[in-house]
Amino acid sequence: MRDLLALVDRPEVISFAGGLPAPELFDVDGWRAAFDAALTGPAARRHLQYAATEGDLRLRGHLAARMTAWGLPSQAGDVLVTTGSQQGLTLVAAALLEPGATVVVEEPTYLAALQCFGMAGARVVAVASDADGVDPDALAEVFARERPALLYLVPTFANPTGKTLSARRRERVAELAERYGVWIVEDDPYGELRYRGDALAPVASYGERVVFLGSLSKIGAPGLRLGWVRTPSALRAALVIAKQAADLHTSTIDQAAAAHYLAVADLDGHVARLRVAYRERRDTMLGLLPQVLPAGATWTDPDGGMFVWVRLPGEVDTAAVLPVALAHDVAFVPGAPFFAVRADRATLRLSFSSSTPERIVEGMRRLGVALGSGSSALPSTALPTALPTVLSAGNRT
Amino acid sequence: MRDLLALVDRPEVISFAGGLPAPELFDVDGWRAAFDAALTGPAARRHLQYAATEGDLRLRGHLAARMTAWGLPSQAGDVLVTTGSQQGLTLVAAALLEPGATVVVEEPTYLAALQCFGMAGARVVAVASDADGVDPDALAEVFARERPALLYLVPTFANPTGKTLSARRRERVAELAERYGVWIVEDDPYGELRYRGDALAPVASYGERVVFLGSLSKIGAPGLRLGWVRTPSALRAALVIAKQAADLHTSTIDQAAAAHYLAVADLDGHVARLRVAYRERRDTMLGLLPQVLPAGATWTDPDGGMFVWVRLPGEVDTAAVLPVALAHDVAFVPGAPFFAVRADRATLRLSFSSSTPERIVEGMRRLGVALGSGSSALPSTALPTALPTVLSAGNRT
Q1: Can you tell me the ipTM of this complex?
Q2: Which of 1.10.150.130, 3.10.20.70, 3.40.640.10, 3.40.50.720 would CATH assign to domain A28-264?
């Protein structure tokens, strides 16, 4: 296990495993100026001090304005700043889930969400979905039968599949949540990274029973650990109490720097540049998959985000393929841990965001060699299922 | 309630309520230089990226060296960086407490710890203590009777009492934990703020069953939210998993800035200056208490830290005194919420750290007027017990 980890960390490995933004695209100068501004002048001491649990009021205002521009009218008072949107998930679990509560998820879904619900003692139930995301008819049936506490969705450029819930289904899903008294957690770290088609309004714009989780990690910089929860008023007090117990508040200085950055930097222009770069990477990867993958493989064609989801043909276990890939200096995440109930072990996730097109070409070549080494060379014993979690530790997989 | 909060936030109020470090003593220039260095050069992009859950290896090395200097031999690999030591508490609760587990605490104790254990579904049991801290004989009895999962202590300059566990008792408490198979959580945010006497080695130096929680909030700056857990190897994996679910990792840039700061700044010299300033504030407050408090009042005489714990004579409820104090533009924290089992409502906590000696003199004068308004003027109805928590929201009370 440790040996495998060491293999992934070797610089010669081209990794499609993590869900990392491209570091060469970070606005380093903008962030350095923002921290400098936050630590200059009379407000500097305030930015080093304890602060309100809810977050920096200027930052909350900028984030509310951003959500409003996405079609989700919001005010600063609706925003609870979190230490990354991962923390938002944990706070929602703390505030909404009693041990034994039922959580409904798409399958596959974000594996750290599954871990989070598992740690909260919840029972996880899967609902059917197709290329347009979760199936509303199946969802109605699950809601009626299971009486869940919450439904967790990554409705836009989902992790791990890259799929997007259609506008019509967003409306229906929000209606079902109202009708059955279920809370929806709309996890949206990727929404601004759209490479094709028109933006869709968040599910939260269709109803009141939606907790929207946002993040600056993919459009700003993940190292600052800045996310937010748009809190329905009925949940606000419980979420603030959970946040206070979790870490009192998010880094004052990081919040102040982000507030400054959002005030003075051209974030929309930066996001536009990210879209151009990531679109090229997605297209490079998708263009090579027909040559690289064995006949009968299928994959998603995401409109945005960071991920392509692949299914290999036959009875292969991708956890057993990973060591072979690593031997060829290329990495991916085996798919099984993304499943809550019944794992499809022939699946795997590829991330195209953190590799340049040149590296993607070379990485795809290596993956082709690894997969082309023949099914007889692929060992059938699965690695421990904890492996992919650890492989992707420290990033939002 | 909201009106009361507004009263505390008024700038004319002299607050002895929060557990805030003095902002005028922050090393603003040192921190600005540290952030600038962290965002300059080839490492800058790494400092904006996702990072390992365990924390920045350089920072972990500095923190381990610091603990070693305190008499607690440590290595970087023993350190898990947390988003403030408040998060360390929550991680320990997540890793060690099943619902219904028993936690032993001194009474009174840090109220956010009580909230944290309550949110984890634990049953809290109090153990007797005196001026030297927790009573080992009483502790042995409680351990034998209750078979608790953990013992929570702030053994050095405790919050809220300012009391310190004697060296001899540290050894005995650690032995008892080994004998009964109980984990000790040694919460030590104040240990370096000693104004009298010699430093004591941490409880963790006396045995293996101690989880030590450290913090840069009081000696560096709380706005960075940087704390750490010194993890016994038996708990390391569970704590890292809990940390990953909580927020993936602590701010990369804040950690990098702190690593730079600890490498180049004279933190020991800074702490020495803090000690001089805080000692004067403590002495100013203690010198005035005999004039300010009614006859029969008692209070602690802390060797360090930030707090003096007061008991008023008679049947007074300090939660009912607070509005009177606020009417005189002075604030404190009523004592009841610091008790886990049986509240002594005649108690209150005063913090001397964040007010200059001049402000302490004036604040003490106002407190004297408020208390001297006569016991007949003090309403006997208690405010909701949640009040002090909210009053002190956003700081480590």
Answers
A1: 0.92
A2: 3.40.640.10
